Records
---
Amino acid sequence: MSSALDIYTGFFGLRERPFSLVPDPDFLFWSAAHRAALTTLDYGILTRAPITLITGEVGSGKTTLLHHLLRTLGRDVRVGLVSNVQGDRGDLLRWVLMALGQGAAPEAGYVDLFAHFQTCLITEYSAGRRVILIFDEAQNLGREALEELRMFTNINSGKDELLQIILIGQPELRETISRPDLAKFAQRVAANFHLPAMDAQTLHDYVAHRMTVAGATHGIFRPAALDAIHGATGGVPRLVNQICDLSLVYAYARDEAEVRREIVQQVLEDGVFFGGGRSAAAVLLLRQGQRKTLD
């Protein structure tokens, strides 16, 4: 039996759903900002920066960018990916060891855990591999945890640093690192970039890119519809994906081969797009502004 999504994609001649909320490197759109962010990551890795920082709003494409990076790292790199870590120093070390595939006895204290971690780094170094710890959702790290990470970067073998750290998080992470009491940590951040939201033209290109990757052979979203989507989302990719997906559903339900501005407005007025509280303001703007038809 065909699912609603099968009917939806078939109606528009698509191979797959173009605006899934699940991060997918195959759909990564290389805006100027995303290229700059990737360049920053590459620079941090190649120069063995102790700490590299990438921030952006929720849904700005940070995790998708991260997944792309993971697919490009060579065999000479041992990666430990840690997400949503919380707790004290001991908990942080346990999360790190687990990310590196290292077990730790439940009764082990901080000194034992740190010794285990240091041995792991030295073992990888002896095998010709360097270790990169990547913390996703790093805005959840408190001051104590960040200071602990700074201490991790002091582990070295002669002139060679054994560990690099990449922090991926929301804008408040930059605010935390900028605090006076974290000045020593900030000095270890050798590469950093903030992913901004998309402007209107970038959003047009972004939607066209994802539709093409999904199999579209012609433009389905009208320019006026995309302008309305930008007004409703502020250019945040995850919100753009949500409203584009809903707009395609509405167009399919109406048996319309294109997504027009009126369809986007109906999605907003029906309240099915939450958009982090942006949709109500977007509806008001659409009602107050002059409607344009670009047919």
---
Amino acid sequence: MSTLHNFLFNVYPYICLTVFLMGSLARFDRDQYTWKSDSSQILRAKQLRWGSNLFHAGILFLFVGHTVGLLTPHFIYEPFITPAQKQLLAIYAGGIAGFICFIGLSLLLHRRMFDPRIRLTSHRTDLFILLILWVQLVIGLVTLPFSLSHSDGSVMLSLSDWAQRILTFRPDASGIVNLDWPYKVHLVLGMTIFLLFPFSRLVHVWSGFATVAYVFRPPQLVRSRRLGLKKTSLSQSQSSTHSTTRST
């Protein structure tokens, strides 16, 4: 392995993960008022509605698909599906989700770049993060023809082995040395997005995942206004009686 390859795929992942976790925590602790998505819906709602819905539907499917596909050990799914079948499933399902996400993200990028009012209210980081997401998505779609040419599932197994070794602190990028360039660029850009995550509006993704906690919250007791007024009046009456008794 070359020095650059070793750095990008054995060292850089840990740099990105450290900044991703510690940076998110630091921003939540120090700058909570900047922890938001900075919606511009009031300026142009229709295009935002279409773009946002398509983008979020596609990106969530891709995120779950990449996470499950890369981090699930081979022996778990081996009795049910072969690596080749799993790769074909990832190609077709990921291709559809990627195309949906591409349309939505292109609408959002066009809206933010070519609407004068929205462009004036946008931060440079907003445009930059949308551009890098768009490029990352395009390169991900470019990998599909390459994946079809490796229909035996070998590429998927190599990528999964690399990702699982990173997660278990046993880095070894020797298995992905000979991968085609779109895969390597896609991996590096993906890690870079994690690196930039705490410094952009993407931090609001944490809040989206945190809403799952509401499912496990105890039920909230809500009393009617009339009952609340009755209890308040009764409490005030008892307090007044108690004060009169003490003064007597």
